[in-house]
Design a protein that fits this description.
Number of helices: 12
Strand content: 5-15%
Distance between the termini: 26 Å
Largest sheet: 10 strands, mixed
Radius of gyration: 20 Å
Number of strands: 10
Amino acid sequence: MNRFLKSIQRRFWRGYTRGAARLHELTYLFWETTTACNLSCRHCGTSCAPTSALPDELTTAEVKAAFDTIIADFDPKRITVAVTGGEPLLRPDVFEVAAHFASHGMRWGMVTNGLLMTDKAIDLAHKAGMGSVAVSLDGLQAHHEFLRGKGTFEKTADAVRRLKQSGHFEIVEVISCPTNQMIDDLDAVYEYMLTLDLDQWRLLPLAPIGRCREHPELLLSPANWVKLLDFLRAKRRAKDAPLTVTLDEEGFLGEPYEREVREIPYFCFAGIHAASILADGSVSACPSVCRSFVQGSIRERRFSEIWESEFKVFRDRRWMKQGECANCPEFADCLGNSMHLWQDMHSGPELCHLKLIRAGLAEKEHGRS
């Protein structure tokens, strides 16, 4: 794609995103079922563990009541619900609640570590109307178990196979978190993913949030960012590639990678198209966004009232033009990077993808000379 055409597209995309912020149509809703998890992964962005459930998590009645107001106040057929956690399968009423909102036309999918995805759970998910499922499988056995614990790899891979073989779901995909320790195995991991007959493989680089703050060695170096993006670009350019690989939303990449490694150009839709009901009833954008940006609680106000009267910090991001972002020539497209990379309105983003990528490209060019 030539530079002039890319420039035209970038201007169009800026106009689209400004309009989206003004309209803020709710199309994607996270339900954080619990903050408890059956694992304590060293890279968890929300520091979940078996003992991390909040003491005041929503009851079944409270969750259903919240969804009832959303069904009444919005067009449920235009909303996709992402059921997440923690580990959502730890919540015994997860399929009861999901069947309730699915009966009103809401599409839904689940993000899970797969360890509790028994044949019974697969059957219940199907009966509750689940359309898609994303299972966390972080590469080959050694790397996956380095991050998630011994004995987890085969159980997770088996869950992916059984989900796919059931034939019940439109999309069965794997999410993997590439690290410095895994980056040189990308081709081997790709070949392994082919054996699982996936519909898609999503790569989600880590950010310095949650428990991952304690393990900076996992965060991709500049050179490894370039290796990852080169891998993604090559796979997506291959018209006959047997498996779709994409970069999960993370940050603004700039040239030469923006528009080359994922489905749509970068934009953080947190609070614009996407919201979340957190485990304790708090309302925010996506669950990865710092709790300092919580906009209200369904225990105190109707969800639609919070959605319409709050979320200004998400919809007008000119406040993010500060610190290193203040004089950045890419700010019109980046807008301070993804919201989950800010701890508050004054901290600045935890990382700048542009800086990392440009440093990696410079290293790559120096290596050639």
